[in-house]
């Protein structure tokens, strides 16, 4: 969903991923168009929706949020291509975050749609049993039309984080901005759409008159999917590899050691040496896939070293105490704590930290 900024730099530079959505549609290469859709989320200004054209119409990769702003932008961008919503026959969802799948709900409401995801696609918000969470009758009945209904929804989202603290749900303003109101979608902003075309790693798929290889890249989420066209060297990287920010790696996941899994997925980018153009979900296209993946790994290795140093000084501490050493105060919160927890989990799996509980709060101790 959101992404951690590189807090190790003394000066916070402007990030490509934070730039507001540009209305201009650009043809990246033959029959592949980049359409930037607005995103009202911290740290992000747009999501890149890629339109892959064939004789029947278009496949859209990551069609944004279901908000009125994003929906209007999508229709406007398609109009620039001489098309409309009914010309979209397929939606590709790279992973289970609402700025990537939310627009699918609106497309499905308009007409029949193929929805392509990885086989592991499922909610990133309520593992390990999102079905029970989203099928709660009180939630499915909400129309999110007023503050009282939204507050009911927020209360339902409150639960314990894996490290023991209470999870704070998004604010009412955030929920409204993300598009959880209007046209009867209820709580679908947090409910992934039903996929009817699911692929496994290295499975071949045809989209936009091109043959793509599905590449499963778990880490940012458990179900993250990239697509690679080996003929022209085009790599749709989703949020796996971004040009100027490091994708969020969180500890609220079904993965045992999410950071180790992320490392392996990033190292795998060296297998795609023929990539000539990387098309990320946020920010501008770039060329050096493996080099950027290596720099993201180095970022997290530096973070692990910071936690080791803090552990030597603190001895034993909670996730939130470590978080305050790892992130600047402006970033403190559940997202930063989740990323800190993922790093502490990794160090525990390496045998460098031990884990205990004190009144339900996990405490980590440097060995």
Question: How would you characterize the overall build of this protein?
Answer:
By secondary structure, this protein is α+β, with helices and mostly antiparallel strands. The protein folds into 2 domains: 3-125 and 190-296, Metallo-beta-lactamase, Chain A (4-Layer Sandwich), CATH 3.60.15.10; 302-366, Arc Repressor Mutant, subunit A (Orthogonal Bundle). The protein has helices at 68-80, 98-110, 130-134, 137-140, 147-157, 172-178, 258-267, 289-314, 319-326, 334-349, and strands at residues 3-4, 26-29, 32-41, 44-54, 57-61, 88-92, 114-118, 197-199, 204-207, 210-216, 225-229, 234-238, 246-247, 277-280, 316-318, 353-358, 361-366. Strands 2-3-4-5-6-7-8 form a 7-stranded mixed beta sheet. A hairpin with an 8-residue loop joins strand 10 and strand 11 (225-229). It is globular and about 65 Å long. The two termini are 34 Å apart. Mean pLDDT is 87; it is low at 1-11, 126-145 and 181-187.
Task: Provide a quick synopsis of the model.
The chain is an alpha+beta fold. It has a seven-stranded mixed β-sheet with strand order 2-3-4-5-6-7-8. It has a five-stranded mixed β-sheet with strand order 9-10-11-12-14, with no helix packed on it. Strands 15-17-16 form a three-stranded antiparallel β-sheet. A hairpin with a 2-residue loop joins strand 3 and strand 4.
Task: List strands and helices in order, with pairings.
Blueprint lengths: L2 E2 L21 E4 L2 E10 L2 E11 L2 E5 L6 H13 L7 E5 L5 H13 L3 E5 L11 H5 L2 H4 L6 H11 L14 H7 L18 E3 L4 E4 L2 E7 L8 E5 L4 E5 L7 E2 L10 H10 L9 E4 L8 H26 L1 E3 H8 L7 H16 L3 E6 L2 E6 L1
Parallel strand pairs: 5-6, 6-7, 7-8, 12-14
Antiparallel strand pairs: 1-13, 2-3, 3-4, 4-5, 9-10, 10-11, 11-12, 15-17, 16-17
């Amino acid at each position: 969903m959101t992404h951690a900024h590189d807090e190790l730099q003394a000066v916070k530079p402007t990030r490509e991923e934070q730039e507001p959505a540009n209305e201009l549609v650009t043809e990246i290469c033959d029959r592949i168009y980049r359409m930037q859709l607005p995103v009202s989320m911290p740290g992000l200004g747009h999501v890149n929706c890629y339109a892959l054209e064939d004789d029947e119409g278009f496949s859209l990769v990551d069609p944004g949020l279901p908000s009125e702003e994003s929906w209007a932008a999508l229709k406007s961008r398609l109009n620039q291509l001489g098309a409309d919503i009914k010309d979209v026959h397929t939606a590709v969802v790279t992973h289970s975050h609402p700025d990537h799948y939310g627009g699918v709900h609106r497309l499905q409401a308009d007409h029949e749609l193929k929805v392509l995801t990885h086989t592991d696609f499922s909610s990133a918000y309520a593992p390990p049993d999102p079905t029970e969470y989203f099928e709660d009758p009180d939630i499915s009945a909400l129309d999110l039309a007023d503050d009282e209904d939204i507050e009911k929804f927020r209360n339902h989202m409150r639960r314990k984080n894996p490290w023991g603290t209470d999870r704070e749900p998004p604010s009412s303003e955030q929920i409204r901005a993300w598009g959880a109101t209007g046209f009867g979608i209820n709580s679908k902003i947090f409910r992934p759409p039903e996929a009817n075309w699911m692929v496994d790693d290295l499975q071949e798929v045809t989209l936009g008159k091109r043959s793509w290889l599905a590449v499963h890249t778990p880490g940012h989420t458990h179900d993250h999917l990239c697509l690679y066209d080996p003929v022209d060297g085009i790599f749709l990287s989703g949020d796996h590899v971004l040009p100027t920010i490091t994708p969020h790696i969180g500890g609220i996941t079904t993965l045992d050691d999410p950071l180790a899994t992320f490392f392996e997925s990033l190292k795998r980018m060296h297998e795609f040496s023929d990539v000539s153009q990387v098309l990320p979900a946020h920010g501008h296209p770039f060329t050096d896939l493996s080099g950027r993946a290596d720099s993201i790994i180095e970022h997290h290795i530096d973070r692990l070293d910071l936690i080791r140093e803090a552990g030597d000084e603190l001895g034993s501490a909670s996730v939130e105490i470590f978080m305050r050493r790892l992130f600047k105060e402006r970033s403190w919160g559940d997202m930063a704590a989740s990323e800190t927890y993922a790093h502490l989990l990794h160090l525990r799996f390496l045998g460098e930290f031990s884990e205990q509980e004190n009144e339900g709060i996990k405490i980590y101790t440097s060995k």
